[in-house]
């Protein structure tokens, strides 16, 4: 079986690493399975791309479509045009897409129109919030996917309610958690740890990059000013996404507690999360990692497509207002962290399950 794997953005690289490891394992067991890795070039900044290939031992992509930035439509169209050319020259049995970025949707559409089967890893999750491009990408990708791999039974249920064939909906666990568990013994302390006087639990990690939080510079600054004074005796470490950096650089504000650092490589970032007091974020993937690591997480969004991070895990959805964040954070400081567990099958073996199922489908 010839699989073309698509990756375009930071969270994709983290998700494909264990899938590639699982394919290599099957090859060593004598199965006829090979892969071609396509990087669409959606993320091209070294800190969001190359670093992850190096740290997670992902092989160099066979091709980079080099699409770079653009509006939603420009980027989606550029990926489709470039990937169609690629697929014509290098046909395969299956295109495997992960997550919910533009590359996921664009390559799924191209594959399907070229009569190639599509597998979607992290299928079926839904926030119901169509103002987010990711939700549109999820819905469209799942509407043409052949093999669905889900992280939760609720994601599988969403697909079954849509009429997907139950034989093709597979609850396998979470590939992002595979990466986390495969690398926990490799995480490393960042160079700036002493310089910023960081120590276990004396800081909060902050990440923000979603348009609702960062696109309007004055509300972003107001939000950061509020977060700056949220807790008396904790530093706020903010690995700032290039998107947020570009917007903030228009406004030179000084903060008392917020320490700005570049986006971190995976091994440093997980070290920082694991030793933090709490995390404030608008990322979906990070709320899964904090759940596994048992770190309190406050999500600055009105909804989540990963409900188990809140119902089972450590996540609290606080909305996008500073008042709500203050209220929920104060309750946490007074009452301590909520009791949390780890969702079913988040055991580090999702990728192996996926590849075993695909090999059997042939
Ligand atoms: N991440 C990282 N360095 C950072 C911030 C995030 O390695 O400075 C990792 C994080 O551990 C998680 C992933 O990037 O695995 C999440 O990516 P992002 O927040 O961009 O995407 P989302 O999960 O919101 O789709």
UniProtKB/TrEMBL annotation:
EC number: 5.1.3.14
GO terms for MF: UDP-N-acetylglucosamine 2-epimerase activity
Entries under PANTHER family matching the protein: UDP-N-ACETYLGLUCOSAMINE 2-EPIMERASE
UniProt cross-references to CDD domains, sorted A to Z: GTB_UDP-GlcNAc_2-Epimerase
Class of this enzyme: isomerase
Domain UDP-N-acetylglucosamine 2-epimerase, residue spans: 32-358
Protein name: UDP-N-acetylglucosamine 2-epimerase (Non-hydrolyzing)
Keywords: Isomerase
SUPFAM superfamilies: UDP-Glycosyltransferase/glycogen phosphorylase
Family: Belongs to the UDP-N-acetylglucosamine 2-epimerase family.
Highest rank taxon of the organism: Bacteria
InterPro entries the UniProt entry points to: UDP_GlcNAc_Epimerase_2_dom, WecB-like
Gene name for this UniProt entry: wecB
Source species: Flavobacterium flavipigmentatum
